[in-house]
Here is the input.
Amino acid sequence: MNSLIAIQGWLYNGMASGLGDVAGGDVRAVFVAMAAAVLFGAVHAMMPGHGKTVLVSNHLGQPGKLREGIANGAILTLTHVGLALVLVLAGFAVISRAATGTIYSPSVAGVGGDEGKAALCC
Here is the structure.
């Protein structure tokens, strides 16, 4: 377990140090970051708490086919990654709105003439 944590830390630090190149539009850096993210995700999936025990127990407890196992693994992967993506995008939206100090609300649109923007504070 400690070796997985060390690998994950090394990958995280490497990705964090290369974010400037990614933001600058360096195509090579974008591909390297994507490859590192896939590797980071694979190491992350080996950590506890990702449903592997439940999934394996399910397959060992009943006769099944290889195709069903692959399908269940794909479903688990897609739901995990999909939920993570939704959470990251929602967090980005909240942080972006908090940083700008305004929110857009259709119910406020047209009131006050500022296209629906309302101050978050004071």
